[in-house]
Write a structure and sequence with these properties.
The structure holds two protein chains of two kinds.
Chain A (H helix, E strand, L loop, with lengths): L7 E6 L3 H10 L7 E5 L2 E5 L1 H5 L8 H7 L4 E4 L2 H16 L6 E4 L2 E5 H8 L2 H16 L4 E6 L1 H10 L8 H5 L14 H16 L5 H6 L2 H19 L17 E10 L2 H22 L1 E12 L4 E7 L9 H18 L10 E13 L13 H17 L5 E5 L9 E5 L25 E8 L1 E3 L20 E3 L7 H8 L18 E14 L7 E10 L8 E8 L2 E8 L1
Parallel strand pairs in A: 2-4
Antiparallel strand pairs in A: 1-6, 1-7, 2-3, 5-6, 8-11, 9-10, 9-11, 12-13, 14-20, 15-16, 16-17, 17-18, 18-19, 19-20
Helix pairs in contact in A: 1-4, 4-6, 5-6, 12-13
Chain B lengths: L1 H23 L1 E3 L5 E3 L3 E2 L13 E2 L3 E5 L2 H13 L4 E4 L6 H6 L7 E4 L6 H11 L2 E4 L7 H14 L2 E5 L7 E13 L1 E2 L1 E14 L6 E7 L16 E4 L4
Parallel strand pairs in B: 5-9, 5-10, 6-7, 6-8, 8-9
Antiparallel strand pairs in B: 1-2, 3-4, 10-12, 12-13, 13-14
Classes of the chains: A alpha+beta, B alpha/beta.
Chain lengths: 561, 236
């Protein structure tokens, strides 16, 4: 463990932060009794609930018995972190750099800031009033040497003079060590250590620090050594200050909502050029670009595009302008899926994965080869010819039926979400994967020996062994068309529906394999799958197909050709 | 002085000519007979019986009757780092392609080129190593001849899923039989294929038996590669 100088720091602590953040989001008053439930127990309790007897770690039922009008709020780590940004921004009004140790706690090296404000008392007062005014939230500030002493000082709202941290810490109970562990895994390790120490009869930090350091290291390993140093009022790492660095982003607000793409194309080009100039001025380049648009109805649309691999080319602006334009055309013309159609009121482009120019990560085996950049240029040319959706990049994803297992996206667009491939996906159609997967299932007839359609009932019993299969005839098959028009086929007048090919005898079959999934969501699907091998007729070879029975109809899903 | 300069220039010109010949694929041997030694893209060993000349750059291979065979032809080249494009094949099984060894990161799909098919195919032939053309593309015979000439000049391979008059080799699936299914039980396990190979250079059509999709253990993901091959000479 490296030796670092002990830093004097001020800590700003917002008590019961998860409850404060959750109550603010739910619109509850800060004085209402509330608690945040995670797993089986409460992880944070508001002050009024605490006076009613609700404690951390209590079960939901016990908490409700102690305080019947308590509001139980869900746990959301991301919400806590997001909401804490407002507190951090308020604190940054007073001091230059802060370290967010965890949502609910900020650290500030106090030397310089205290000198600037006159004294530590003045600094504490400025911090508390800034947070109360700008973020509307009660907080406590303490200062001491070393991490643990500063945290405990903040909880007690005291300022410990320099050099008195060890005496201040000594009477505290041993389980306060967990307050200095900021990450969850670290906290779990420290909790284990604390429980062992308690069972050994070591119940205060003073007793613990009286143990010789080498013995603690030998018995408890790195966690013990860390705890020993922390309990003595020392530091193991200096505070990591976050710099208030702004994203490189450009935005354009339309005076009147833009309705068609002709209005947007010059704006797209302008934004791309401005972003290019901003990146150049900052000496940066970006790996991704996020396009954000606001509609007049208050919706937000956003999409991430990968920017080009390879070196920063002069064509960046026009390249990005194309991406922005495609995106906007897609949004403005979308009618069925996605948000409802509305004019755009604002348009922004944000650079992501920003790295200094010249420090891009290159491939493991050197830069990109000539063939790679040639192929990239080809794809870009194709996108210029056909539009962004004309060229697809495909990826495998998890799923059960063959169609679900493919994720196809316009080339260069970042995936929104993908079903993880590593999950087991029980009940999927077994390998080998079919070489032809129909994008939309085609109708097919599966008939028994007497020519009656086969059906699969709710209990997956098949009504009769499939004996004949009629696929749809190819559009060029005149014979099948003529047969379909013939009155003997049962049609009179105009012919509707699919034109069936001649029935083909089933050689062998397997199934039915049920796939009923995601009944809770809009993309629910329910069907029984059958693998069928058809004997060849008219000189055509055997053919294996995958058919599905859905809602009383048979559908051709895939062909093993 | 003059003579040495001249000889150096002659040497340079010869080297340039040799480079062009290597790229285009023609060079005249000492006997004056034209022979083909264009560079070859890697091909799965099991398919080498079907295409003994290999997947030569600049050639056109037509495959009739099996998408799996198309994927198997592309797989080894894609694994070795070639870029590929599939034009006009909206229903190609991407999972099957990945299982056969095609690197999906180096594969671009143009499912519906529509009326732009000649331009799209031309751009792909210029920029990609392997271009797979689907069966229902709006290409005239003149377009096809132009594409073949362009592929020969650029050194890329065109694989046509369907008829292509003037293809260097044509693989036609004559028989295709699956094993592993029963009457309501089992699953597809192995496939035997009989492929008829005709070459533009003439000669008798050959029939080659291939086993694609050799059995893989159930429940475990494994790459299914082309299995054993057996040549039946002189059939048909």
């Amino acid at each position: 463990m490296t030796i670092v100088a002990t830093t004097r720091r001020a800590v700003l602590w917002v008590p019961d932060w998860p409850v404060v953040a959750a109550a603010a989001e739910a619109g509850l008053s800060p004085s209402a009794p509330a608690a945040v439930l995670h797993g089986r127990g409460m992880i944070a309790v508001s002050a009024s609930a605490r006076t009613a007897g609700v404690r951390r770690g209590q079960r939901k039922r016990l908490a409700q018995r102690a305080c019947p009008d308590i509001t139980i709020l869900p746990y959301d780590e991301a919400r806590d972190a997001r909401a804490f940004e407002a507190i951090a921004a308020a604190a940054e009004e007073v001091v230059a750099g802060v370290e967010i140790s965890r949502p609910g706690m900020l650290m500030i090296p106090s030397d310089g800031a205290a000198r600037f404000h006159g004294s530590e008392e003045a600094l504490a007062e400025a911090l508390v009033s800034a947070v109360a005014e700008l973020a509307g939230c009660e907080s406590a500030v303490g200062a001491a040497d070393g991490l643990l002493a500063a945290v405990l000082a903040a909880r007690a709202s005291v300022l410990i003079p320099a050099g008195e941290s060890a005496e201040f810490l000594a009477p505290h109970p041993i389980d306060t060590l967990t307050l200095a562990a900021m990450e969850r895994t670290k906290r779990e390790a420290v909790e284990d250590l604390v429980s062992v120490l308690t069972r050994l009869g070591i119940d205060t930090l003073g007793v613990f620090t009286a143990l010789p350091f080498p013995d603690v290291l030998a018995r408890f390993g790195p966690v013990g050594a860390w705890a020993h140093r922390i309990a003595r009022g020392e530091d193991v790492a200096p505070p990591v200050l976050r710099r208030a660095e702004e994203d490189i982003a450009v935005e354009y607000i339309f005076e009147e909502p833009a309705q068609n793409s002709e209005q947007l194309i010059p704006v797209a080009r302008l934004l791309a050029e401005r972003l290019d100039a901003a990146l150049l001025a900052a000496g940066m380049r970006c790996g991704k670009v996020r396009i954000v648009a606001g509609t007049e109805k208050g919706q937000h649309l956003e999409r991430v595009w990968r920017t080009d691999v390879g070196a920063r080319a002069g064509a960046f602006a026009s390249h990005m302008a194309d991406r922005v334009r495609w995106q906007l055309e897609g949004w403005l013309s979308s009618t069925t899926e996605g948000p409802e159609r509305a004019g755009l009121s604002s348009l922004g482009v944000v650079a992501e994965d920003v790295v200094p120019l010249g420090s891009e990560q290159s491939y493991l085996w050197g830069g990109i080869s000539g063939a790679d950049s040639r192929a990239q240029r080809t794809v870009e040319r194709l996108q210029g010819l056909l539009g962004p959706d004309g060229v697809l990049a495909v990826r495998e994803q998890g799923g059960r039926s063959p169609r679900e297992r493919v994720l196809a996206l316009p080339w260069g667009q970042e995936a929104a979400e993908s079903r993880p491939l590593a999950h087991p996906w029980p009940g999927g159609i077994p390998d080998p994967a079919p070489a032809t997967v129909l994008t939309t299932p085609a109708p097919v007839q599966v008939l028994d020996a007497g020519g009656t359609p086969v059906s699969v009932d709710r209990r997956l019993a098949i009504s009769a062994p499939p004996t004949w299969v009629r696929l749809e005839a190819e559009s060029t098959d005149e014979r099948a068309r003529a047969a379909n028009r013939h009155p003997a086929s049962g049609h009179v007048g105009t012919v509707k529906g699919p034109v069936w090919d001649r029935p083909r005898p089933v050689d062998s079959w397997a199934g039915p394999w049920p796939i009923a999934q995601r009944w809770w969501s809009p993309d629910a699907s329910r069907g029984a799958y059958l693998q069928v091998s058809l004997s060849g007729v008219d000189g055509r070879g055997d053919q294996a197909v995958l058919v599905a029975f859905r809602g009383g109809e048979w559908q051709l899903e895939a062909m093993y050709d | 002085m003059d003579a040495s300069l001249q000889s150096a220039r002659l040497e340079k010109a010869r080297a340039a000519l040799a480079g062009v010949q290597l790229r285009v694929g023609t060079s005249r041997s000492a006997t004056g007979a034209e022979c083909w030694d264009a560079p070859v893209l890697p091909l799965a060993p099991a398919l080498s019986d079907a295409l003994p000349t290999g997947l030569r750059r600049g050639q056109v291979v037509a495959v009739k009757g099996s998408t799996s065979l198309v994927l198997a032809l592309v797989a080894e080249a894609s694994r070795e780092g070639s870029w590929g494009a599939m034009i006009g094949m909206p229903s190609v099984g991407v999972v099957a392609a990945a299982r056969r060894g095609i690197e999906l990161a180096r594969l671009a799909l143009v499912p519906h080129p529509g009326a732009q098919a000649p331009a799209v195919a031309g751009a792909c032939v210029d920029g990609m190593d392997v271009v797979v053309l689907g069966p229902r593309l709006a290409l005239t015979d003149a377009d096809r001849r132009r594409l073949a000439a362009r592929a020969r000049e650029r050194g890329s391979v065109i694989i046509s899923a369907g008829e292509w008059s003037g293809a260097h080799s044509t693989l036609t699936v004559v028989e295709n039989s699956w094993r592993g299914l029963g009457a309501g039980d089992g699953r597809l396990r192995a496939r035997d294929m009989l492929v008829e190979v005709t070459s533009r250079a003439g000669g008798q059509a050959r029939r080659v038996a291939l086993t694609l999709d050799a059995d893989s253990t159930p429940g475990r993901r494994r790459e299914v590669r082309a299995g054993a091959a057996q040549v039946i000479e002189g059939a048909a």
